Structure formats: C-alpha cells, structure tokens
Amino acid sequence: MNKVCRFFLKLVGILVLVFGVLFAIFFFDLDGKLLFNVVEPFLKNHYDNMEREDKTKTPYDISKYPARD
Amino acid sequence: MDINKIKKGFNDFWYGKPHSAEEGGRRLGEILEDKTGLYKHREWRGVKDTMYYFWNIWCYNYLHMVIDIMKYGGLVPFAKGVWRYRWVGQTYLPVMHWFDRGLQGMRGEALKGSAWHYRGMVNASIVQFMYMFVADTKLNKGKKNYWHDHTIAHNETLWGGIFYPWSDQYRNVAIEMIPYFVTCHVNSHTVLNYIDAIQSIGLPGDPCPMCQAEAGIFLLDDVPDYANFWLSDNEACDASVSTSIIQDWFWDKPLYAMTQPMRFDDPIAKKYCMKEIEGAWKFIEEQTGAPFNYELLCKRLNQQNELQRFEWEKWDVAANTSSYPINGVAQALYRIYQSQYGDLPIWHEVDAKVRKIMEKCVSKKINTFPKTRHRVIAWSCAPLYYSNWCTWAYNTWGLNVIINMDSLMFDMEIRTDEYEHTLEDIATYHMWAPMRRMAVGGMHHIFELWDYKEKFNCDMVAMYDQLQCKGMQGVHGLFEDEFRKRNVKAFWLPHALPDSRTVSRAEIRRGINDFMSTVMQEEPLDPSLLDFDDSMTW
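Output (structure tokens, whole complex):
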C-alpha cells in the first residue's frame, strides 16, 4: 500500500473516530449532563460568592442631568 | 423468530418510532431523567432526522456559536464576560438543551424550519452580548474604549429601529433583552436571583416579575457598563416605569425617557408619540454629535419591511394550509425577537433558508404536523420559562399552536416615501409594542383575538393568564364571558412570566391535561408525557 492510500485510510479512521465520539456525546446527552452537574454548580458557586458593589449606596441626584422640555 | 417484530424494529430504527400510543408509539417521556429533564439519551428520530439533528443542528450550532463569538469580539472578552456575569455564564452554556426542549418530537421539514429559527436567535443573542462585552468598562479595567463611545443602550421594549439613522457608526444594544428576556427561555434558574434580589430591599412580591428581574439585575451590579447614555420607555406598563427609575438611579447616566401613550387609537396621542420619537432622535444627536441620517433610516426600514413581507407569506401558509414548517415556540420567539430588535443580517439568512423549506412543503403538500387534532391560537403573554409548552402540547395531545399574540403585534410595513409618513408609521409601530397593543391597548385590541382566530382557521384558544399582570387580570372575566357567548373552546394557562416557582411547568401541563381529558374527552397521543417531574430543569 502506498503512502497516499495509508494517509487516506488514517484520515478516514480519524474522521470516523471523531464522528463516533461526537455522536456518543450527542446521543447520551453528555454535554447536558456535564453542564448541569459540573459546570453550572461551579459557576453558580463563583457568582454567589462574588464581591458586588452595593448599588443602593449610589446617590440619586435627579438634577445631575437636567430634565428636558 | 417473529418476522413482524424484526420488521417493526427495522422500521423504528430507520424511520423512528411512530407518534401515537395506538401505533406502538415513541413514549418521549421515558427518555427524560427524573427532575432534571436531562436525557437518558436524546431522541432517536429515525436515521435521516437523527443525523440531521446531530449534524445540521447540534454540531452546526455548537460550531457556529464559537465562530460567532470569534467574529463579534473574540474568546477573551467572552471568557471575561462569562466569569463576570451570571446571566451569561449560567444561562448560555446549555443553549443546545433549549433547542432540545423546543424541537422535541419534531420530524422532517418542521424540524428543519423550526431549528433555523433557533439558529437566528442564537446569533442575535451572541451579537448583543459580545457588543456589550467589547464595550464594557468593567471588563476593560474601568477604561472607556472606542466601542463604549459608539454603543447606545436602551430598554428592551424600545424598538431597535429608532437607532437606524446612526447604524453606520453606532451599535445599539438593549439592556435587558439578553441578561433577562432570553435567559428565561434558555435557563430559567438564572432570573430567580434577580427577582429575589430586588425583593430583598423591600419591593413587594406581587408586581410584574419581569420588571422585578430587570431592576434586580441592576441591584446586583450585573449590567455591563457599555454605553455613555441610554433611552428608556414606559412599556408595557407603570411597573416598567418604576424599573426605569431604579435603573436610572443605579446606572447614573444621561437618559431620555421616551414615553408612549397607553391608549393609542387617539390621533392626538399619535402626534404626541411622534414628538417623543423626534425628541429621542434629538437627544441621540446631542449625545453622539452625529447627525440624524434619513437615507440610512429608510435603507434599514426597507430591509426590515422585507422581513415583514416574508412574515406575511408565512402567516398565509400557516393560516390556509397544513404545510407550515415552524412549530409554535419557534414561531413565537423568533418573531418577537426579530420584530423588537429590528433588522439584522441573520434574520435575512434564516428567512432565505426557511423560504426554501416552506416552498418545498407547499409545493409537495407535505403535512408538517400530521397529528394535529386542534389548530390553536395562543393569546396574551406566554410563560418565558415554559415557552416550549406548545411542543409538549403537540406531542401529547395534538394541539398545534399555529400563531400567537406576540407574533401579530407588528402587523405593518413602514413607509419610506417621505419623512412625515415614516415618522407616523414608526410611531404606530412603537405604540404596537410587546404587551402594549393587545394587552393594555384597550378592549378593541385585546379582542382582536376573534378576528385572528378566524383568519388563521383555529378552533381552539390557549389563553395565557399572567398572574402578576394587573392589566390582563382585569379582563379575565370578560374573556370567560366571550368564550361562552361565542362557544369557543379555550383553556387557561396560568403563569408568572419568568418566575417558574409561582406556577410550575407540571401545573401548567396538569391544567391542559384536565381540559383535554374532561372537557374535550380526548385520549393523549403520548401518555408518557402526561405527568413527569421536571422541576429542576433549565
């Protein structure tokens, strides 16, 4: 078998493998399970513990930008 | 060996299991995990449709989300945005599950047409949040950059067309459309943080939860600082005005409050509205230093009119044939998104794809929803956390939601022949805004339901009942009377807009199940979908 054939066989093999892995992720909803069980709780924990500015301390100066006609 | 069993097994594999229980149906409820609504495995739709879903929807959309992010700002601002803002990190990562919920059970051309609508909405969402992140001082060490000075912020209920005259130099991004409105559909958990936050400083729980959430985002400092000034409006009601006051307090930027009349049929009210729009344009000129460009306005309006003309073609097919390839949720969300944000290239791309699909359906007389038992028109404002209820209703009971109120609001083209006509039509368009024209716009408009029900050949009404909308609660009894008087088959669908805790999805389903089994005395197509627990789902 020449090099070109071997290259194409390898390429086809890789494509089949990628297709199979992606299809398994898709069909068994592995993306959804990862996002629901791992990513979302992790991010939620991060957002819950973020330091946030206390917006109620913002002065409400209603004449700062004058009213229009 | 039972040859019939082998034959059925092969047919189920090749074509997918049939829909109804009598045909040995697909029992879609059984592929769902308890509580989370995740899939034990995604639905097998037959070889052709499963591969279409896998390749042309799942892979295609994941890939194009990455491409869109790269195209509109790059991975760095996106990653910073995900880390900084709950509404993007928690919400938009599970976006393919939003597709799954809306497209469950769809086959053939209906699957394709509906999925393209979702693709359009994903692109439009990415465009907007990337525009926000690129301009955001919070993600740029407090510095204002070029795009911060060239982006205009506005309330989501203020139509994007107002900004067309500056669209060659300035971007406009609605403040709440992405952080609030779209999140509720994709991941209903996120919005609850914002509702609880605003109530924690003393706001009572009974005002409209949309307005609560939109104020809560500001209270939690979860709004990107992406513009120098902003425009608000008073749609849909006085609760929105209260939201704008809180937003004005916390954002502390120059503001133009573009108020619109509630009862808009009066010609004097229209003149007032036209003056308000001109006032907004003058304000933008002052803030940007860039002049109003009427030619550009007309060019963009003509592009938007093209979208409207195709929408009319779609309505014609939906009303008069059984070949309409778009399901209820895709129709509703795409249309309100497109007509409210205004012209974008993606809407034209999607419409071109959908036109091909629709023309194929019509020319070949394909029955796109073959299990339709009732043609339903959905009226009033829908539950954002369960906008895909109509997909469930078709799969379970054969209730095919043909059209809905929000799709029908902007039923007009805007004239571009002369300035006065253009301004007059823009005023009308703006007054016909979401939750305005047919929700609080007066009895004549609320009761446009009867005409549209006839026009779309519907035999049933799904009547949304937003429990915290004081306006629509006030006409509940009038609808009851009219349903009886007109002998219209109708069911109520109670909800609290974004807040899934007030009326759960299971309660919504139970109400419809009760109506279909007791009043209509019908049997479900798929009994596995009657009762299941998805209380924790996105």
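Strands of chain B lie at 151-154, 171-174, 230-233, 255-258, 374-379, 399-404, 460-466, 489-495.
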